[in-house]
Write a structure and sequence with these properties.
By secondary structure, the protein is an alpha+beta fold. The protein contains 9 helices and 4 strands; from the N terminus they run E-H-E-E-E-H-H-H-H-H-H-H-H.
């Protein structure tokens, strides 16, 4: 059985990380059974989660996990899509993972209130004496990453505008369809669902959350995929 190294449930979702949740969705779409291990972060091959262990084969990074599953299990997450739809799906995934995601990082880790309501809980196992120092160091590192990526250089008003544009694009693409490209999920849906679900966490307030919450089709999309693939989790 595939072992998925994950952070574990937070915020009323199966995992705190959109990339772990994306991988869970891919495994669910593929009908592949898996177990979870929450102790693997310190051994992560690329210093991040998720990664999988498939009977001794270690694969890190959600995109490379997707490619591995397709090659190893003889499947195609984009089966039935036209070449244009496949290209659009890849473009949407990269918009969400390389731009939208960093807006989420900024909201979670840089905003003091959101940090205390959210990511601060990740440090519960750190000894109390050094916990404030570790939290401060990690937040400083993330702030540097955001500056290097570019979004950390923008004002809150500019970040809100970028969030609205990303969300508008995703909402328009989805329209009134069950999934991004029709009646069946594709690889892009795993990413889109994960990002939308993580954005709607009620404890974490941001323009990104407000933008997603203002789109009934995206909220219904989150609800629909949770019900279909993660029925133990009730949408907030």
């Amino acid at each position: 059985m595939i072992k998925l190294y994950s952070f574990g449930p937070y915020f009323g979702l199966p995992d705190a990380s959109p990339f772990v949740l994306k991988t869970m969705a891919l495994l669910k779409f593929a009908g592949l059974r898996y177990s979870e291990d929450h102790s693997g972060y310190g051994r992560a091959p690329k210093g991040k989660l998720p990664y999988i262990d498939d009977e001794g084969k270690i694969v890190a990074d959600s995109t490379f996990i997707r490619l591995y599953l397709e090659k190893t299990y003889g499947m195609d997450f984009d089966a039935g899509l036209t070449p244009e739809q496949r290209a659009a799906g890849w473009a949407v995934e990269k918009m969400l993972e390389e731009h939208y995601y960093w807006l989420m990082v900024q909201a979670r880790w840089i905003d003091d209130g959101n940090f205390e309501r959210g990511p601060a809980k990740f440090f519960a196992r750190v000894p109390a004496l050094v916990r404030p120092l570790i939290k401060a160091l990690i937040r400083k590192k993330i702030a540097r990453c955001l500056t290097a990526q570019g979004l950390g250089r923008h004002s809150n008003e500019e970040l809100a505008e970028l969030a609205r544009r990303d969300v508008d694009a995703l909402s328009i693409l989805l329209g009134d369809k069950p999934y991004l490209f029709g009646a069946a999920p594709s690889a892009a849906d795993a990413t889109a669902f994960a990002m939308v679900a993580e954005s709607l966490v009620p404890e974490l307030e941001s323009p990104l959350r407000d933008a997603v919450a203002s789109k009934p089709n995206l909220v219904a999309y989150r609800d629909r995929l949770l019900a279909a693939y993660f029925p133990n989790y009730v949408a907030a």
